[in-house]
Here is the input.
Amino acid sequence: MFIRIGLFLVLFSMILAGKAFGEERTVSNSAELMDALSSDEEVSVIKVKPGKYEGNFSVGKTVHIKGEKGTVIKGPNRGNVMTIEADDVIVEGLIIEGSGSQNAGIYIKGDRSYIHGNAFNNVFHGIYASDSYGHRLENNMISSFDSSKSHKGYGIYLVESPNTAVKGNYFYDTQDGVYVSYSDFCEVSRNSMWKARYGVHTMDSRNVLIANNQVTESINGLMIMQSYEIFIMENYFYLNTKIDGAGMFIYDTFDSKISSNIVKGNYRGIVLENAQRNRIEFNTLLENDTGLEIGINSNDNTIFFNNYYRNTRQIISEKDNSNNFNKDGYGNYYDNHGSLNMDKDSTVDYAYKSGDIFYQMASREPLLQVFFQSPAVELWNTIEQYTPIPSESLIVDEAPLAEPAPMKRKETSAKTGDTARSHDINIILFFVIALFGSLFILFNAGRKRHEA
Here is the structure.
């Protein structure tokens, strides 16, 4: 009895498989590809032979389109090169080019597309998914129009397309690498972006994971706007040096976590503006002009266990902000802060503080920017840290770390010993200068009394 039931189920599943998956078809020219995509024939796999296929192609049924090496889908420089209207479509192994001036290489309207292993060039957007969900967009190479005079689009553009994963893609010379708009529960991971406006851009989205990406030579590595519960973890943002650019620009963003990122050699490392209730921890901010800039209306953020190395200005903040620079008795590590630690515990014996008087004055009088990085300004900020000069200390870390916080990435561990030694030398040099200055003042005062 059970054997008969088993045989029946096997036979029934084979019949269903035949109906669901259909036949495999090979095409070698544009007309054959058009016919395979539009006919009522049950085709599960369309194998596309090497060559150039010209036209605008529409996919209206569930199918796996598999290009062999050297397969080029060439649009007529108008419209979308390929439009996917069906659900559960797979596209791989194609070179796609020639979209219209505001169109995409692949425009997705159906759900659960899997687009992987393709190359997009000379298109406006690479992949544009709209009003759909559940896509996997992986291991593609995407650039926009070749001409520097052409307006460029986004590498991958998600609009109301939640639950989408964008993984392992390479983007170069695009407006934005990945733009996530009104799309919740998405993942953007293991991508590389080069020469974009923004590497990853979110707008009005919630619960987005941005992890293990690299962005360089762009304006902002990240542009996070009007978003909630964004998780930014283990990314590398470096050499984004445009004026007013940043490794990360966090704007109108709330209840998010920024952890274990390396932000190196940017004009500004991390910028917060109207960013509230975010948790910023275990990041390394290295060799930026400004490490962390806290702009207006950025309050109730918890900032701890971050490492600040060789930034021209470690942290600057607007006057009226209120943030926490330590948690559970642990703050951040600053390579320009002293290492006085009499009880040999994990924190320095005196607070890190900075009002950055020059930053406040330059905000009111922009012409003062000509003195940025001048010896006089740097000396004033140094004196302010170590002496009780009356000033508005806008940033106070009551428990700065004596040693750098542990990081997952090896790049952050280099030369920490040399840095610590240089801090001690700087402190000694400062107090020697202060001592000789005091003796000089006393000597002159005594000479004047003697002369009188």
Q: What stands out?
A: DSSP finds five helices and 37 strands in the chain.
